[in-house]
Amino acid sequence: MRYTILVVEDRLDSRELLRFLLESEGYRVLEAGNGLAAVEVAQQERPDAILMDISLPLMDGCQATVRIRQSGLSAIPIIACTAYDSSDWRNKVSLAGCTDFISKPVEFRALLSLLGDYLPSTDNS
C-alpha cells in the first residue's frame, strides 16, 4: 500500500523539500500552502496522515486541525510541525486535535520514524 501524506506548509521551498524526501520513501504527497487549503484537501482526498505547519496564512494550523476534526476526519494522524517547541505549544496543538508534534527544522529520519508509529508497515520481507 502506498500511503498518502498531506504536507501543509506555507514556505514553498520547505514544502518541495518534504515532497521530494517523502516521495523518495514511496509516499504519495499532496500539498497545501495555507490552512483553508489544508481543510479542503483533507476533506476531498482523505490522506493517510497530515504534516501540519502551525504558522500559516488565512487560517493557522491549530484552526485548520480543529476544522478537519470537526468534518469527521478524526482518525487521520495530524503531526504538528513547528519551530515553537515548548510545553505550552505542545499542549496547544494537542488541544486542537493534533496527534503528535515534531520540531522544525524537521530531522527527516525522526519524521519517518514518527510516521511509522501511525501508519502500519507494509514490509512483507
Model description:
The protein is 44% helix and 19% strand. It has 125 residues and is an alpha/beta fold. The chain has a single domain (4-118), classed as Response regulator (Rossmann fold). Strands 2-1-3-4-5 form a five-stranded parallel beta sheet, with helices on both faces. The radius of gyration is 13 Å and the shape is globular.
Q: Notable features of this structure?
A:
alpha/beta; Rossmann fold; five-stranded parallel sheet; about 120 residues; 5 helices; globular; single chain
Short description:
By secondary structure, this protein is α/β, with parallel strands linked by helices. The protein is built from five helices and five strands. It has one domain: Rossmann fold (3-Layer(aba) Sandwich).
